[in-house]
Amino acid sequence: MSLLPDEILADILCRLPVKCLLRLRCVSKSWLSLISSSHFVKLHLSQSVQTKNNLRIFMWKDNIYRVDFDLLKEGFLPPVAVDYLPLSCPVMSLIMEMRFADYDYDGGILLCGSCDGLLCLSNAISINTVLLWNPSTRKSIKLPYPFVDFRDKYDIVYNCIYRFGYDNTNDDYKVVRIVFISNIFRVGICTDYELNVYSLKSNLWHTESFGDSIVSGALHWISSVESDTEKKILIVAFDLGTEKYRVIPPPEFVGPHFRLNLDNLGGCLSLSCHYESSFVDVFLLKEYGRENEYWSKLITISPTNHFISFHTVKPIIYSKCGKKVLLNIDFLSFIWYNLEQQSFKEIRDHGMEDLSEVNICLESLVSVDVPPAVCI
Hints:
The protein has 376 residues and is mainly beta. 12% of the residues lie in helices and 41% in strands. It has five helices and 23 strands. The longest helix has 14 residues. The radius of gyration is 22 Å and the shape is globular.
């Protein structure tokens, strides 16, 4: 019997890292029940979000690497290879090993997003193979095969992208799959779209059509509308709760640009604009979903900075004090940008050049367990 009330015990335990909590489940049945409860999982997640503890950076290169966020404070980036991946492509790995004996191939894994300690992975060779994986608990689930409606046509090809997030309206994690359909004789020209939504709570996919409803959004992507006279940039938001769409007007740009990137910075939608003049502006969308929603410029990066030859600037996360922002430049280097002094400090990355993806992931106890199948 515990000497402390469950409320106080939970408040103490929620401050510990996941690795310790997994061990403490063996103390007693009551501790196992407490740590495994949905209330404690949410409490631990909330504590980690508030304190920025238990943060890890996952990076894709020739393998998947993990970095403890707290170790970046001293300006070093000591990556550790992840050796327990739940997804791989053995055939492609064998081909790459035969062609390049000294090349450590990652199995064709694509990172589709991270949320609350879960990573969404897909296979680059078989794009319909998708997993949700908690790297802290090492548990994963392979999503059911998502059906694509080809409308009885045999002359089409398709490609798709995946996005992943949390639906706070229904307390559910959802994967959104956007399918781009084109005619086999017009490859590269999209002729139609289909959107599928996977719910972890129900372990099912369903199909959505594109609509005109305007509500608060959660997942975002950049689209463009072209006419004979102009090309208009649009930001599309998809609400995971209502599964409706709205269009967000972009900020005012100061010149011609060639690349736009959307990211999540501290729970706020960010937009990086790369100008033809080689400057980069990073904007934040403030008052999200409200009548006075507006874009605010956070950073302007000049090409005079010696470490920048950039094509991609990705804001990663604020420091714990909130005075600095971690930036990933061209998937090559990491930079701390001091918001008050408007200065930069490079991070020594120990040979982690040519990264293909960088994402922040919390250590959490969030489960990927799904309800049992219902027999009919």
